[in-house]
User: Fold these one by one.
Assistant:
Number 1:
Amino acid sequence: MEAWFALLVGIFFTVAIYLLLSKYIIRVLLGVAILGNAVNLLIFTGGRLTRGVPPVIPGHQDALTGLAANALPQALILTAIVISFSFFAFLLVLAWRAYEDLQTDNTDEMRVAEPKDEPAPPLGY
Amino acid sequence: MAASTPSPADLSAALVLEPVASADWLVILPVAWCLAIGALLVMLRRQIDWHPYIAVLGLAGLVLIDVLLLRHVLASGPVTMVMGRWLPPFGIAFTVDLTGALFALTASVVALAGAIYSLADINDSGRRYGFYPFLMLLMAGVSGAFLTGDVFNLYVWFEVLLISSFGLIVLGSEREQIDGAVKYGFLNLVATTLFLITTGYLYASFGTLNMADIARKAEGLSGTAPLMTLTALFVLAFGMKAAAFPVNFWLPASYHTPRVVVSALFAGLLTKVGIYALIRITVMLLPLEREQLSFVIAVAGALTMLVGAFGALAQSDFRRMLGYLVVSGIGSILAGVAVGGPGGIGGAIFYALHSMLVMTALYFASGVAAKLGGSFSLASLAGLYRRHAGFAALTLMLCFAVSGLPPFSGFWPKVMLVKAALDIGAWWLAAALLVTGFLTTVVTGRFFLLAYWRDRADTTDTPHSVTISPAALLPLTALTMLVLAIGLYPELLLSTIQSAAAGLGEPSAYLNSVFPGGAP
């Protein structure tokens, strides 16, 4: 099953990078959302995939007997999900404000901070 | 083990059972202190008049804590504290060595200077939007990143400081700021996501996230695990956070847009956290792979230096020029990381600490100059020397320091880096360092000539009554004096940095602090 998941993660990354390379902020935002999910899926797969095996140690033993999924990557993902969700929310609002204030969602035209026709520095005095 | 009677679990194998020594609480105190003050400020969100004083006092307390922490580490070597008493590698460990303590102390000094400067720069509206809570949470993130001993925890602190920096960069909501924040936000998010991807692979390869555990196991795994890929991804992720060429473009696009004090704090803190993480991971955790990648890092460093210096030469805006000078400094630090050895790493750490102080002070100077001259543009700034000779002298000292001229703090790390580069025969890297120093001198000289020495064309409408606010002058003067003092008496700092670099190259003391009983 890991191989299929690896393929899926690869597809997610491909789509995310394609969208991130776009000029339009709304597509970049979608790329960010997919990128976050791609990473989560990657870490999830890295922690071994098993179905219906709870990682519970029986009372008379000190260690797990069979193979179970590692619970730590799942804890890492929970953290990462919260973080990527909050960042996505912030960037969504930021993109909306940028669209309102700058009247464009094309990053090529966002040149307020770095104007195109800026005068060269003085050459002498 | 008998199956009939449930045996009591042997807790001493998994938990720290003896109470933590009271001095060791200093390890976690910087983070806890900043979070507590930040929470207090949020609770007092209606009493905005109190915010600046609470923040200044809180950051003064942070400086004190970091001084005590550095003293403790100097006296007893690296100190470890684990969360929830779980023994490493299971519990998240905070481990402070000399490098972390030095960075944390310098960061707290920069933040204190920023808080004092903000009295003159942040108005009521900025306070209402929460400048001071964001500042304290930023410092919690920065301190946590310098003190943690766990890779995933490092990622979490990166995100804490990044989200606080988002709040700071949009403070004011001007069109320029929104534009800068879009580029800053997206590119930094991609960089931290790259860091997270690498952390996932790191865990999949090592089965642990504890830095000491990884450092111990790295040599044994170099044959089987894809450690080169991991190291290359780490270098890319942290290089992007640190604004190294060719992933530096977000920095000059955004650092000139926010409030002056925010730019100053960012220039002093954020890129240096990236550099610190790069040094920690590549030098201490994966040294063999750093060795193999050193040529790539060296080329990136040389190009970063030159791009920064030439970029600064092309700017006609004071703050945008400073943004490129930050980038140029990152290049010098990368050169040290690439060269390696005690000289190279020591030079990189020294340069990073110097750059934190001097870039913050230069941004403060840009704010004062803009207040006096009415603009950030080199075309209209003029005659500052004639009106404020003392302020001009301070700026000139900072210009010398950033160019690496004696007797200021930039001189010694440059000497160390050039010597380390020549020692391993990388003459071209030494040449790049020296050419960058020369170009930076040209940049700052031209800037000083235009903005300070040139006479104003129109003397009629000059606002002679403009004076410099003491809240702006105090941190500027204090940082400049610190830069001068480090330049004049570098021995103490130099010996500390040399033992910090030695501790990174040969981390047995760090490992002993995390695993006191040897390998589990």
Note: Residues 409 and 489 of chain B are 9 Å apart (CA to CA).
Number 2:
Amino acid sequence: MIASEETFRQLMIKAQGGDKLCYSSLLVECDKWLRRYYARKINPSAIDDLVQETLISVHRKRASYDPARAFLPWLAAIGRYRWIDSLRKIYRHEHDHLYEEMVADPQDEDVTAKVSLERLLGMIPQKQAEVISLVKIEGLSIIEAAAKTGQSESLVKVNIHRGLKKMSALIESE
Amino acid sequence: MSISANSLIEGLVEELEPVRTLKPKNGLAIVGGLTLFALIAVAATLGVRNNLMIGMAHEMFFLRSGVLLMLGTATAITVVNMARPGVGKLNRGWIWALITAALFPLTAAIMSAIAMPPVEALRPMEGLKCLAVSGIAALAIGTGLTLWLRQGAPTSPERAGWLIGLASGALGAAAYNIHCPFNDIYYVGLWFTIPVILSAVVGRLLVPHLIRW
């Protein structure tokens, strides 16, 4: 069970005031939320690092949260920013199976749908989203992605580059 | 949760100290203060345009002051709001201010197409002075705004770079405007546009490296 939006908000307000107990609970809840958020959107071998990098960003940038606003859109913006950054760094994965259990148990479905990574991928042209999913998320090589999509190898590279660039400009879009 | 995630969380909790939440109005105050400082510096070193000194002013002075200040303010508001990210939080007011400001170079271009202005109307030497002074003022304003934004979490460093350049270029030109004695559309369309564009390009090139997190 993941905390509600209001619980997240209250914990963060206390954390900004220096309450370590609330902060510990907040980070544990953020860890759970982020694991589900990133599920199927990054290779499982990279998920621990990505979640931890996002938690560090949450810590370093906690002053940028506005207590008058909802918490999850703020966390999602930071999550998307770290996700795109992480996709840029990944060049080749081993073929791992995606963790099926991580896609179960969705929480706050309305909020999550609006801030989801799926929605962000849906905002860029389909050809770009397709090769990003194949190469950066599923871990195919450029050659394999080219064969699967019918795009040339150089086009796959260009589409990945353009797609990531476009997504990074759209991070705060619903 | 993994052992490493647990120990990371313990470490972060150990480091926790109270923080003051970022207030966009503080960023705006820095921009306003630096613009005012630039304006006073221009007035003190180069002087205030003559017709203002005698209590009169050309309508062009008000038009370009208003448009530059509006562009600078709308863009600066967008920049300071970028410090506090959130999905669904878009600020696009600056686009309208930019379109309005584009009327000056557009009008100058159309008028030039109708009748080519004499070179004297473009006043290259004075124009370069306008460019230099506006550029120095923009650098000061842009530096202040960039340093403030570094505390925040802008999710689009490239866009932030463009916008910081645009805001500081427009406000830097607005500061020089208090001295600039020329009123014709050719001069304003050229020499008040170049500093804004150049500043935006410099912002795009330099700022993202400084604010990435």
Note: Confidence is low (pLDDT under 50) at residues 93-106 of chain A.
Number 3:
Amino acid sequence: MKISKEQVEHVAMLARLELTEEEKQTYTEQLNSILEYAAILDKLDTQDVPPTAHPLPLHNVFRDDVVKPSISQEEALTNAPDAEDGFFKVPKIV
Amino acid sequence: MDLTQLTAHELSDLLASREAGAVELVKAFFARIDQVEEDVKAFNIFTRDRALEQASKVDDKLARGEELGPLEGIPMAFKDNMCTKGVPTTCSSKILKSFVPPYSATVVEQLAQAGSIMLGKLNMDEFAMGSSTENSAFAKTCNPWDLERVPGGSSGGAVASVSADEVAFALGSDTGGSIRQPAAFCGVVGLKPTYGYVSRFGLIAFASSLDQIGPLTKDVTDCALVMNAIAGHDPKDSTSAPVDKPDFTKSLINDVKGLRIGIPREYFGAGIDPEVDKVIRQAITKLEELGAVVEECSMPHTEYAMPTYYLIAPAECSSNLARYDGVSYGYRAPESGDIVSMFKKSRAEGFGPEVKRRIMLGTYALSSGYYDAYYLKALKVRTLIKQDFDQAFEKFDILLSPTAPTPAFKFGEKSANPLAMYLSDICTVPVNLAGIPAISIPCGFAGGLPVGLHLMGKAFDEGTLLRVSYTFEQNTEFHKVKPSLGVK
């Protein structure tokens, strides 16, 4: 077993997912079987291989710092689950 | 004549010769939808009124004697992960069920500019994660060739709508095969363009280094026409390639003489259906007869592509989907207490099981202590997979394989076992890792179900893929065979 139920609980916390007991069990089993399958990668010596994070050789794509049209505050708030006085409203944080 | 069976370019000819009008086309397609949609269930939403309004503007142009563009007045639809201003865009997820984008994706703008007429938004696996469209939170899209089978995925609704003649063409997206595998399952043409060729602005992200939008069409000519409309650099997408686009229709050449085609033997390994294998071998023979030079080759890192993909894609997904927190848009769980509980409950209730599984896997692969062993390792193997392609393309113009190892499978057949489901993308996934283009075209039938021929090309060389596809299509009849959907 590469991953325990406690680790699944820790990962769920990092991912901000509330899991049921049943889900914890299922994901522990399924993640283990996927990770076991992924262990085949260990057969390859990749010490001197550079990583490819992205298929195109593009780096730091900038544009001129000019103001362009954007969506309005009102439009930005139309999909908000809760909004008040032009702000997104969330439960009390502090 | 049944208008809905025609290709986009045939419909365009009818509009140009005034033998049909744009409103007439929209009405014909909605009549077809009314006939078959109950069985196929390809759509999440229809935009009927809007379509008729747009079509009447095209008819006004025709009445004024103006010429139309090649896709003007042509009914089509978008996979429901492309933002459409004012029209719900759900990713077939409960978490975005009520999301109405305040802006449109670049491809949506481009096709609006081209005058194409949107009929609605198409069902998909939730957040494009899946290979059967069974992961949709809303509906089970059926394969028009056999309603007890899946259409493939994740662009299952898009592909089924084209196959069932509910639209003339559709746009899908492909992260590991989500255009090509369903195209193969439903017998249509599906192209995943080179990474960066088509703008991803407004495409709801799954795995940003792999996602690419592409056309789903009834023939190769339509594929080239849609590429003409959607390819090209977009300043709004920083991963958009700064390249000029050609006229893709110039590649519609009925000739493959002397073209070098490589057959990577690893793509014909264990798990391939013997009938699929036979159909693909027949297609290879056909291309040889037409003058192509065919030779077997080896891509030694192919077996590592699936595990590499299933670390990289979930890692990127876990990061991209962190934005669904119930704050600025999307679902918020009611009365969920403090803010962290609100995040956790909203995500738990909003996401389906496959999306959660991938978020969990990706979060684990990126977490402290495991990053090097999983994510970084996968990125390094990605380099080796890309190098396999670089080496193969020194010798060959294109590579050929089946699109999927089997024809469409039955509902529920693979949904209990995530790994078995993942393996249906074994031939398509390496292409996304390498960022190259690939196309699936109809090439025959196995047990009465369509089989797709998968052609892979060099980066930004869609031209050669279109040329080989066009030649194959002009010399075969498979693309003309239609599913015999029972019309009620």
Note: Residues 3-262+395-480 of chain B form a domain with the Amidase signature (AS) enzymes fold (CATH 3.90.1300.10).
Number 4:
Amino acid sequence: MSALLETCHLTREFGGLRAIGDLSIAVKRGEILGIIGPNGAGKTTLFNLLTGIYPPSYGDILFDGRSITGLQPSRIARLGMARTFQNIRLFRQLSVLENVRIAYDSGLACSPLDAMLRSPWALLRERESVEASMELLEMFQLGSHVEDRAGDLSYGAQRRLEIVRALALKPTLLLLDEPAAGMNPSEAMQLTDFLRWVHDKFSLTIVLIEHHMQMVMALCDRIEVIEFGVRIAGGKPEDVKADPRVIEAYLGTEGELP
Amino acid sequence: MNMIGMTAWTKSRYLPPVLLVAGLIVTAILPDTGLVNDYLQFVIVSVAINAILCVSLNLVNGWMGEFSVGHAGFMALGAYASAILTVKLFPAAPPALLFPVAVLIGGCVAGLAGIPVGILSFKTRGDYLAIITLAFLMIVKSGLENIPYTGGPRGLLGIPRLTTVAWAYFWCVVTFWVIRNLVYSKYGRGIAAIREDEVAAEAMGVNTRTAKLVAFVTSSFFAGVAGALFAHQLQFINPSAFDILKSTEILVMVYLGGVASLGGSLLGAGGVTILTQCLQPLGTWRMVVLPALLVLLMLFRPGGIMGYRDWNWLKPRISFRPRLEVKADAKQETIP
Amino acid sequence: MKYLAQQAINALQLGSIYALIALGYSMVYGVLTMINFAHGDVFMLGAFFCLLLIAIVPVPFWLALIVVMGATAVLGTLIERFAYRPLRNAPRVSAIITALGCGLVIQNTTLGISPYARPMPHLLDNVTYQFSGITITTLQIIIIGVSVGLMIVLDFLIRKTSFGMAMRAIASDRATVSLLGVPANQVIAVTFALGAALGGAAGLLYGMAYPVVSAAMGITVGWKAFVAAVIGGIGNMRGAVLGAFLLGAVEVMTVAVLPSTYRDLIAYSLLLLILIFKPHGLLGKPALHKA
């Protein structure tokens, strides 16, 4: 399998502080890759670099064979890279349906003039966007909440909506930033099954940042470990689990590696 | 969809256009009937112009959640551009032809000026964007004061009175229709997403630059249209008519009626226009009431009367067919 | 050469008045990251308070200065307490709108009471000195002297006293500071009082220098000082002073070359240019990028 996403010597500094240093990793098409590491290791910064929110200080990012370094984040998203956020970032004041439509709409060709005059073309797009978004929401059993404000949903439903919203981009790569944050172990295991189902159903490649080790071990095909912005280990879950460097990194901070 | 749903849909579909055309006919013959005197006509035209100003500013300050104080500046550009056409360049042209063109050009000039402000909003938000719009307003005002061609600080006199009740109504309807379409479109949802969370909006594929540009250009275009109507209502414009107080007046309308709301814009424009007319006897003190109202609103009801809500009849209808088969299929598979 | 020196003195005079006002904008922005649009009108009221005071009791200049500063300080605290404090945790836009509204209320109330510009009576015997062809008046010396004196006092307050430390701490992290037991509300109130007092002093000095006082001064002069604060980097005290003297110099040069109606045009164009190329002003630091 070829690489869907590749970073080459990716480096990001914040005022002389190195958040990501010379990181070269590859994500294979169709796999579920876990990224683990202690708090402050630079995992979220890595996502922000991949999605174009921060420009890298140095290095290159290849997505589907082309360089996406320096592209506007929305451009990268439309190329098929969707993400969720560690601290849920829904459009809280907007309805559930609007949240999903905003992501779906970005793939629609409709000029501002068409939109303002509500041309037949624009109407067709509007209809397509409602239908597709509704379909997606129904599929994830949020169909009864379409009119609710996203901020009023329960915590679990908000997490799910964020994933639905990301899927509305019709992505090939899904970046999940701690999707199990705030969940107990049994909820996390449910989420594991759910994510596997999403992965298969939408034929996705998934990159996952997570602290729930059980979930990472159960879900991921491969794991990369980073600490202080540098890759310290990587490989199959069972190998990573046994790697002395990983144990050391974790024992120093959490010591909860199963 | 059942039959009842279909008929209700067809009924409601043709009702609004019919009402709107009827309104145009009524406003066109209204002055000739003698039922409303000149003063009342003046008030009606003012409400329409203010409604245009209010809903267009609401696009930036309400839907997009930014704070622009430069609306009077865009309005000034529209007013001056159109007045130059009707007074200086083509004073002899038939007004029925010239006026719509003049208003459109007024809008376009203001819309063009909206482009640089929109571009500056790519990187600048919040306080700093407010400062930029303030600088823009002051530059337009003091710039106009220094142009002898348009009369400098004394302003332009002898503008023909071309803004009739019907024209004001027509442009008001056009403005609301266009902004409604925009707000309930891909771009409008993108603009609202910027208000909610700009980073998340970008991450969800919203080209925030395009959205901001669309918001600023549309907003300033209609401010220019309103300015053109304003100039041809008062028959006299000078730079100090478009100062920070004018912007504040529009701000009061927006925040009184309700942010991000078409109906709220209508209410706000109507309410403030009628209020200022009632306060006319107070003279200068009238100008204390509006800003004070603004402060009280912020302290006690920051969203205004209809913040983030709208009447259903103002929203466009989209028909869609739910695909029931998908529901069944998903139920076996998904994890709650 | 003489002409230039003469213009430099004029620029210093205007710049030091701008600096006093600009410091008020900058201090408030520093602690609350809020644009206090009403500050220009506090400055304007400073001049009016002085008029009022002299009309009641003819007092010497120094006493008038102290009384006016006290009065505007009280006013500044009142505005903070009743208009801004309730909105401290509201969206930022609400606070800007409120400030704008407060300023216009003050301005138009003053306009209602005093619709016309009023002449400012003389507080001092104005003596003109000649130094090898350059004229300088007692008034100019006092204006520049008082402004610089007040700035030095303020600098001392901010750098050496516990109040100054608390103020700087709040500027960097309000939430944590409250947890550490710094009385944030008091410090913020004192900041407003100080800023307003400086604004009031500037109002009095401006009234003496350009002896006409009008309600529009809050916008025509006060907002110009705001422009100066933004040019220098709002929130930064040294930036405010730098911006003020820069703007003073630019305005004096403009008036020397072009008709005086170009002053506003040039000042606001300069503001726009600075914001385009140095979005946080000459000495301002960009806020930490938050994604």
Note: The interface with chain B takes residues 33-35, 83, 86-87, 90-98, 100-105, 108-109, 111-112, 115, 219, 223, 227, 230, 259, 261-265, 268-269, 271-272, 275-276, 279, 291 of chain C (CB under 8 Å).
